[in-house]
Amino acid sequence: MAEKFKITGGETLRGEVSIGGAKNAVLKHLAATILVKGKTKIYNVPHLTDVDIMLNVLSDLGAKYIYNKEEKSVEVDASNITSITAKYELVSKMRASFIILGALMSRCKEAIVALPGGCAIGERRVDFHIKGLEALGAKIKIENGYVHAKASKLVGTDIYLDIPSVGATENLMLAAVLAEGSTRIQNAAQEPEIIDLANFLNTIGADIIGAGTSEIIINGVKAENLHSAEYTTIPDRIEAGTFMAAVVATKGKAIIRNVFPAHLTFFNDKLIKMGANIKLIEPTTIEVSCRGRLNSINFVTQPYPGFPTDLQAIAMTLLTTANGVGIITESLYENRFMQVPDLRRMGADIHQDRNHAIIKGVKNLTGATVAASDLRAGAALVIAGLMANGETIVEKLHHIDRGYEEFEYKLQKLGGKIYRYNDETETQIKGVFNESRL
């Protein structure tokens, strides 16, 4: 039965909220666990459907796992990998699971992984993944919707990425861990999640330097050098930015814990220019507040450390009621303005011209029935509902559940009037998480 959010807008968000582990980091850590012929334990694992999908991918390959809900941890035992095939039924549900290609090539020297297919926010090609693996010595065939990669051995080399692709950087890092010699990835992605993956791999015995810069060097190690370990995932910077925006949007004041402010420098700067107040309370705790109407700004989405595309839709929502006119240029994905029609339904004045959006601030939004088209657009519509006069219904919550852990409960804790329901029960529903495959 399709679930929905019912939101009554106009409440000022106040209180405290704690941010969960970074979805885009922990998914790659889980893929990397298959490099270890033993047990690996990861902490600060968010309770998300995307995490469940990745655990199912690992289970399908022969790994076993235990999810500890109280600890927010996952222990993976990859002693026995019994399959080299990541099936379309799983990979098609989440593009990030394509990262298993590099991990399987590293451990097994062969992998059969379904092509991830299209994505609502635009084309995200895998050419750079394929070319990089071929440079390492893999022979690759693409047929029947699957990538079949095989190598007698992988040998380190220099690889230049035409664009700083996060997924390609991660896949090639994983593949190069057990390659002979050194691999140098130039024009590498620099996101905090890249650094976290390198730190995780080094914790299990890899030798990687330069993560977080445009050049990453992976010195190949022997399989016997990799070992069991425990690791704690970094906080989710996009979730943190989402809650910061929600507080600012409702002219509230809140303390946000378990956040790395340095990961949000560009976004924080834009919020401050709009009129928000951001104060560092402790190294991983900030206070966010806003009293008056926001001011419009212009920005262009860019690879890290620029303005994150994952926060573009959320920033657009803030601009809908800001003073003046703001211009957003989306430079990374061609279809990442999918929230625009629904924001217009709520009264926003937005003109879109290809990858540019011109937002003229209106006095207020009004509640309407809207639908999440993707993960971040869905979060933006929730914030719009919190801002709006009247009642908002947000449909297609499966998109939001991919990346926000107990979203409505955290908002409720801050005073937001939001609950999840289906048409039959009209009562709150708690998601189901597959807790163990041992």
Name its key features.
single chain; 438 residues; alpha/beta; four-stranded mixed sheet; 14 helices; globular; disordered C terminus
How is this fold's topology laid out?
Elements: E1 3-8, E2 14-18, H1 23-32, E3 39-43, H2 49-61, E4 64-68, E5 73-77, E6 85-86, H3 88-91, H4 100-108, E7 110-114, H5 127-135, E8 139-143, E9 146-150, E10 158-160, H6 166-176, E11 182-186, H7 192-203, E12 207-209, E13 215-219, E14 229-232, H8 237-249, E15 253-257, H9 265-274, E16 277-282, E17 285-289, E18 298-300, H10 312-319, E19 325-329, H11 340-345, E20 349-353, E21 356-360, E22 369-371, H12 375-387, E23 391-395, H13 398-401, H14 407-413, E24 417-422
Parallel strand pairs: 2-15, 3-14, 6-7, 10-11, 18-19, 22-23
Antiparallel strand pairs: 1-23, 1-24, 3-5, 4-5, 7-9, 8-9, 11-13, 12-13, 15-17, 16-17, 19-21, 20-21
Helix pairs in contact: 1-2, 1-7, 4-6, 5-6, 6-7, 8-10, 8-12, 10-12
Explain how this protein is built:
By secondary structure, the chain is an alpha/beta fold. Helix content is about 30%, strand content about 25%. It contains 14 helices and 24 strands. The chain has helices at about 25-30, 50-60, 90, 100-110, 125-135, 165-175, 190-205, 235-250, 265-275, 310-320, 340-345, 375-385, 400, 405-415; strands at about 5-10, 15-20, 40-45, 65-70, 75, 85, 110-115, 140-145, 145-150, 160, 180-185, 205-210, 215-220, 230, 255, 275-280, 285-290, 300, 325-330, 350-355, 355-360, 370, 390-395, 415-420. A four-stranded mixed sheet has the order 22-23-1-24. A hairpin with a 2-residue loop joins strand 20 and strand 21 (about 355-360). The chain starts with a strand and ends in a 16-residue tail after the last strand. Mean pLDDT is about 95; it is low at about 430-438.
